[in-house]
Specification:
alpha+beta; single chain
Length: 510
Amino acid sequence: MGNAITNLFPHKKPLAPGHYSIQKKGGQNKGSLANWRPGQYFTRGQEARDREAIVERVMDLAANDANVAGPIASIATAVVGPGLVPNPSIDHELLGITRDEARLIQKQQKAAFDAWTPYADLTGRLDFGALQFLAQRNLVQHGETFILMHMDADPIRPYSLALNIIHPLRVKTPTDLYNDDSIKDGIEIKNSKPSAYWIKKAGTTSDVSINFVRIPARIGHRHLVLHIFNQDDAEQIRGVSHFAPAIKQLRDLSDFVDAELVSNVVTAAFALFIETPNPDAALGYNTYAEPTANGNGDAVDESIQEVSPGSVLYGQKGQRPHSIDTNRPSGAFDPFVKAILKAVSVSLNIPYPVLYKDIDGVSFAGFRSAMLEAWRTYSYMRSQLAAQLSKIYTMLLEESYLRGDFKAPDFYSKKHIYTKADWRGPPKGDIEPIKAVKADLMAIAGNIKTREQAIAERGGNYRAVFEKLEEEIQVLKEKGLTTEVTDPERNLGNKKEADEKPDKDVDDDK
């Protein structure tokens, strides 16, 4: 049997692989690629120094360049806005409880979150929404954010959990621990996981370990430090700013705009220069009195001096005026600036018209497409932030459970079920809200979308909406007013279109 099967295959040994692959020009070392030698980091220290330089440069740009400050605030506003809010979503079947019991637990959890939100900040200045906004700003500007988890027993707080966001430059490796291979860029690694963070104390200058505090990443299952960062590489341990690829272009653009502004100021201060045949008569116009040792003022002639805009200067005999070119800025100024800002938009993965709110020359369809593309980026950023905020939410619910605010059998064994929540933020907005509402109504009628989803996408809570509707209908009935909802087509000015629609009751009768 074995020989029969073997005879079906004439080649007893596998064929050697052939050489038919295409040569890759990107790996050649000739032409424009001859001197292209990308640099690599050979130590964590080199990488840390460059990362800190990037943070400092982006901080400088954010403080002094509107082209950086604007996008940072714009992205944080779109992603977080007033804050992401968890909507508890408990599966009562997995917990073995009734639906009513699950609803009661969700209501108690929501009440605990609402009570804690105003006191979320350890310093007492920000609520939980503002802390999220700050965290998202740090993610865009610095590429990472560090949140310290405290348990503050202040009696004014309904819950002890309190958050403190620190500057990422405070997390670094002490100079006397550079040879410790377990500490990488301020993060102590054990079994491929962060085990502790080295944070520099406030008010210290030297980077020796005595001026640092070592905080464990967590104790047991409770987090002490929450490190949120944009991870682009497989073995990356620290975040890098979104603006890092565009730092050089932004700096060059800033210098270029400054130079152009100075040129325009000089041009605007153009003075009229008049030649006169009598140099003695013109001497007094370009002179000023310089005090001498005896206190007397001697006239000093100056050929170059500061002049006020619109001045009339009289020259000496033999001097001829040369006019200043007032054609500033050149026609290439706007296209050049726009090209640089488009490069920045690409690095942030957000279309230029949305990021810089420039709709000049953009069609309606083009801007709508740009908004949809930007919302994909915002939605991804929101989901990544919400995944980290869930850890904070879990710690809050654990404290709430231990305080007896809600009953949860087998809480620790089923904690992931009890703490499940959908994080909702401000809606994306619509260019055509009427069409968006109609689309929602059609999706609900076709059982594609629930009313809860439609309301949540607009930043609302469906239970609160239904309760308000119920209350409103009751008040209308008490006042003897109609509760009938009028035809929206008539209210929107499409009375003729609404009148042309066939009446459903008449059709049914036929």
